[in-house]
Amino acid sequence: MDTSVAPPLPVANPLTEFFWEGTRAHKLLILRCQSCGHFVHYPRPVCERCLSEDLAPEEVSGNATLYSYTITMKPWHPFWVDKVPYVLASVELPEQPDLKMLTNIVECEHDALEIGMPVEVTFRQVAAELTLPFFKPVGS
Q: How many domains does the chain have?
C-alpha cells in the first residue's frame, strides 16, 4: 500500500455502498434483479431488462475474460504518477453475457495481454479506507 499520495476516493451512496463493503471483505458483489434474475452493473436503481426496482447484491465468481484494454501512459491523478504504465481494462463476467466491468489488469506483462484471456479477481488495499478489485491472469 502506497501512502505517499492518497488515491481519489469513491463517494459511496446508498446505491453503491454494498459494492465498497464487498471489496473490503474481498467479495465481488453485483446487483441482481430479484424479479427476472438479470445482473445490473454499474449499480442503478432499476433493472434495465424488466424495470423492476427489486435489486439486491449478489456475490459473483470473480472469474472473467479480458474483453478490451489500453495501456495508460499518462497519470490522471498524482496517486498514479509512480504507477504508469498500467493496464485499464474491460472484463466480461461469465455470470451473464455482456456483464462487464472496468478494472486494472495486474501481475501480467503487457506483451502477454490477449483479448479473451481468462482472468480472476484479486483485491488490493490501495489506501487505509479503499480496497479495489483488480484482475490478474488465471493462475498467476
A: 2
Residue ranges making up the domain that contains 35: 11-59
* Whether 136 contacts 108, CB under 8 Å: yes
Cα separation, 69 vs 97, whole angstroms: 18
Cβ-in-10-Å burial (0-12, 13-18, 19+) of 34 comes to: middle
pLDDT tens, residue by residue, 43-68: 999 999 999 999 999 999 999 999 99
30 lies in some domain = yes
Within 10 angstroms of residue 14's Cβ, the number of other Cβ atoms is 8
Smallest Cα–Cα separation from 108: which of 98, 97, 117?
117
Q: Let me know how long the chain is.
A: 140
d(CA 15, CA 114): 33
Query: Residue 139: its pLDDT value, please?
Result: 86
